[in-house]
Amino acid sequence: MACISSGAFASEKNTLRCDIDATAEARSANRSRVTSGKFDFETKTVMLNSGYAMPILGLGTYSLLGDSCVNSVVTELESGGRLIDTAYMYHNEDFVGKGIKKTGIPREDVFITTKLYPDQYADAPNAIDEALKKLDVGYIDLMLLHHPGKGDIDAYKAMEQAAADGKIRSIGLSNWYIKELKEFLPKITILPAVVQNEIHPYYQENEVVDYVHSLGIVMEGWYPLGGRGHTAELLGDKTITEIAKAHGVSSAQVILRWNLQKGVVVIPGSSNPDHIRENLDLFGFELTDEEMTAIKALGRDEKHDWY
User: Fold this and answer.
1) CA 19 to CA 8: how far, in whole Å?
2) Residue 189: predicted pLDDT
3) Residue 27: helix, strand or coil by DSSP?
């Protein structure tokens, strides 16, 4: 019988009821102890409910291929970043692995996220091994299901087994919302460590963020700068530019810092070395409550991708 180490479903009909000790039996003792999810701005990490620390900002590699991908990963890591996000559907897991090796930075100092796509769910165990082979980094720090699809429960259970086997350290979901989570979570054993969705000032997902946090799950945002075709408008938003001017930083830095202060991990994508370095420089300023409120007011439920 599957159970979830969260009391969030106690009032739901036909949901599984179990305590933390029952789930702890399915995890190692040291992993089950930590459920805080609070950002540490000194270490620039957040402790996942799996017991592993995850950087709160990093590099998204969507659309990066070949040398561009390798060089971007190298720039990120040599500039102090430690989180790299990739996926099977990005077709660049091998380039990400090459970039990591090229820096000579110890494997244990780098946090690598990848994802299984729905067309892999039917044969998830082999898909996990394929990702490990392409990355060639020994283990995967975090693996996500890319979005809901046929066979996603079985695919998630395959990730649970891979975690037990030491192939993956933490597991989670991407593009799951409140309705999907309420349907999905009672059917699995290990609570996701991370939920990764589209989040930016024009599409804030505040209810989803609060719900995910209430479960002890870390929220991560893709397209934090609005996504291709929308970035210029967002970076040029008058509210954003005025706040940036007040702090002597860029609009991108304001938006990324806004995410961090609302408890959302950010993975902006870029192949521009200057932008990659700038996107990591978020800790020399802090947005005021008034500025956070002003950015919140920009929300217009404008989703920029179909997931």
Assistant:
1) 11
2) 97
3) coil
Whole-number Cα distances in Å, 211 to 178, 207, 216: 7, 6, 9
What size, in residues, is the chain? Answer: 307
Q: Decide if 90 is catalytic.
A: yes
What whole-number distance in Å separates Cα of residue 52 and Cα of residue 126? Answer: 25
Catalytic residue among 52, 88, 90, 156: 90
**What pTM was estimated for this model as a whole?**
0.88
Using CA atoms in the order 211, 301, 61, 242, what is the torsion angle rounded to 10 degrees? -110
Q: Indicate the pairing of strand 168-174 with strand 140-145.
A: parallel
Per-residue pLDDT, 36: 60
**166-206 per-position pLDDT tens digit:** 999 999 999 999 999 999 999 999 999 999 999 999 999 99
Closest CA to 65 of 83, 48, 89: 89
Residue 76's alpha-carbon distances to 58, 70, 111, in angstroms, are: 8, 10, 12
Chain-centroid distance of CA 92 in Å reads 17
Low-confidence ranges of the chain (pLDDT < 50): 1-35
pLDDT at 22: 38
Kindly calculate the radius of gyration of the chain based on its CA atoms and give it in whole angstroms.
19
Q: How far apart are CA 236 and CA 254, in angstroms?
A: 12
CB 79 within 8 A of CB 53: no
Q: Which residues pair with 219 in a beta bridge?
A: 195, 264
- What single-letter DSSP state applies at residue 102? H
What distance in Å separates the CA atoms of residue 215 and residue 198, rounded to the nearest whole number? 19
Contact 59, 73 (CB under 8 A): yes
Six-digit token string for 207: 């209810």
Distance CA 189, CA 135 (A): 27
Angle, to 10 degrees, between the axis of helix 66-78 and the axis of helix 273-280? 40
What's the pLDDT at 16? 37
